[in-house]
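Readers outside the structure-tokenisation community will struggle with the description of the input data as it stands. For illustration, here is how one protein appears when written out as sequence plus structure tokens:
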Amino acid sequence: MPSSIKVALAGAGAFGLKHLDGIKLIDGVEVVSLVGRELDKTREAAAKYGVGHVTTDLADSLKLPGLDAVILATPTQMHAAQAIQCLEAGKHVQVEIPLADSLKDAESVLAMQKRTGLVAMAGHTRRFNPSHQFVHKKILAGAFRVYQMDVQTYFFRRTNMNALGQARSWTDHLLWHHAAHTVDLFAWQCGSPIVKANALQGPIHPTLGIAMDMSLQLKAANDAICTLSLSFNNDGPLGTFFRYIGDSATYIARYDDLFTGKDEKIDVSKVDVSMNGIELQDREFFAAIREGREPNSSVAQVLPCYRVLDALERQLS
């Protein structure tokens, strides 16, 4: 592996820019290509971040000499096919959550990863947020056991807009995207597979064609339970809020911040080298490439999450 890892970023939207911000802080990594849907906007972002190559076609980036890896922050429906395209081209790949919007496609990505032996990682960011890392370290030390997780994922998205308030070219999904964060995190924190999952959904939006409200129940093999409420109709505090109820404490996680059950803030600034979950996720990806190892949140590790999502989708159909 050369001293500098050369990476292409596909997706110059809201989340792609978060990756560019994170990678700026990581030594020995160079973004050499930026792929976007609209050439002018992509050129503008590339100029801001000092990226020399711009294209609207991922295949152009994959032909660049010396390219080592690709990060995909593209629309959900493109993830699996593009991940396979990158692996077939001999490039390590990190796919933003969700890995795919069907179990079949997720399994196809894993099959290609096994065939190539390359690093293939899914962007399940909650594994990297310092707040959730703090809880995980307590669990590994035997100082905390999860009895229940109560999670709220709330947005106000009655039109097809991204996090920057810009029109999206694709439709987001409560189950295959936003629920994936919690389904994976719950099993990871419990250290126990999900053995039971129930789902209810509200009315289908007349133009977006998706359910705007959803409720999930999960149970792990060790008897821990999780209740997840999701909405695109919530006109109030936005984001995802996690309450961990356990044998020795209650923790409330709000993105990278953590509080006790009495709303006392816990200092998680020393949990990792950064408070930015996306940066930490990217650091893990590049470290796994350098060290020739499986990353945390590898495609293999997160596949059980997509099996659960598939089972839930079949309940709702």
Summary: The mean pLDDT is 94.
